[in-house]
Amino acid sequence: MPPTSPDHAAQEIASRYLLAWVETLPEMPFLYVEGFPDDGALARVAALPPGAAAMILVEEDPARAARLREALDRLNRVDVSVLEGDMAGVSPVLMERAARVEYALVHLHPPAPGMLPLEVVRVLAAAPGVDLWIRFPHEGLHKLARFRGSTLADLSPYARRIVEGYSRLLDDPRQGWAAEWRRLEMAAEPGAAEQLIVERFRHALRDVGSGRALKLAALRLPQGASLYLFCMTCNPMRALALNGVLERMGMDEQVRWPAERFRRPRPAPPPVAETLDFFPAAGTTASSTSERELDENALADAIGSHFLGGTVSLGDVVRELLATDVLLDDVRRALRLLRREGRALYRSLKTADAEITFPALPLVRRSRARSASPDTLELLPQQPLPG
């Protein structure tokens, strides 16, 4: 069953994505940083084999930092260090450590918006090879909504700190976001108001991302709770790995942003009337999530028409699909179908820089309904499919 609380869901997704991210890397050391260690930080550290990475936990509270060091001593993880300080203060140290490795993942889960100024993201994104995983702290907006009957000038010190925190997170010192958010809140549209701020943060990340691929997963949990996760990476294929994590967890994105779905719920098999199981095996329960299957033709047509007549990399194709629900293997399946039809030419689909040409006119005409007969004339000989 998928997690129901936002904190539990965020920790589980982050843990699974970390392992998926590691699987995309060559066998070489990397750097993993947790900017605001939560209750699942030690479990994520323990899941990584010793020596696979240099790991840093950044904790601002001295007491929590001391407890983390004690826990790491008990785990005998000498490859994990704890830096005491705020993210703005330790960013130069992180930049220096990231320069020693080719790949780094920085996990940022700020408890409050003001703890993660956008400038920190800008500094980290400037380092080559650094990927960022950010949970947007939207809970502060719910607290601020309690004061919606007051003007900004009349807010309490507590509410004013929340406004100032989001202004630092969005790099909006004039607090223009607050007027737009307040207008929607006063119009009794809290969902739209929340999405407005998340969307502003997405645009801010694009501006500071130095050309990185950016994926947003907007999740709706039970009891109306929300979760917004951003994956900003140098390699679009690593961003798309998030879709696989969500699929395996049975979590579906509540897409309010424009995005096309290519994976449809698979119809459940009809019940077998002849079989009566009065004594089912203990522990067997029905699946709480429906399996999904790819509409391969629709995805192939979407890719082929979008890139018609051009030559791009596999990473460029994946980047255009980050707002959809497809998996990386789905993209490869669609491209193989396009190659069989003469609508795509490539040698390999293993790396993000693999080159793909989409001819303006198909080189092969084949029916999708049946395979070609041996005497079918093909201008493009079939090549072995990549493994």
Describe the protein's topology:
Blueprint: H1 6-23, E1 30-34, H2 41-47, E2 53-59, H3 62-75, E3 80-84, H4 87-98, E4 104-108, H5 118-125, E5 130-135, H6 139-145, H7 157-170, H8 176-186, H9 190-208, E6 213-220, E7 226-233, H10 236-249, E8 263-265, E9 292-294, H11 296-306, E10 311-313, H12 314-320, H13 328-340, E11 345-346, E12 355-357
What does this structure look like?
The protein has helices at 6-23, 41-47, 62-75, 87-98, 118-125, 139-145, 157-170, 176-186, 190-208, 236-249, 296-306, 314-320, 328-340; strands at residues 30-34, 53-59, 80-84, 104-108, 130-135, 213-220, 226-233, 263-265, 292-294, 311-313, 345-346, 355-357. It is α/β, with parallel strands linked by helices. It has a seven-stranded mixed sheet, sandwiched between helices. It has a three-stranded antiparallel sheet with strand order 10-12-11. Strands 8-9 form a two-stranded antiparallel ribbon. Helix 1 (6-23) crosses helix 10 (236-249) and helix 11 crosses helix 13. The longest helix is centred in the middle third of the chain and has 19 residues, at 190-208.
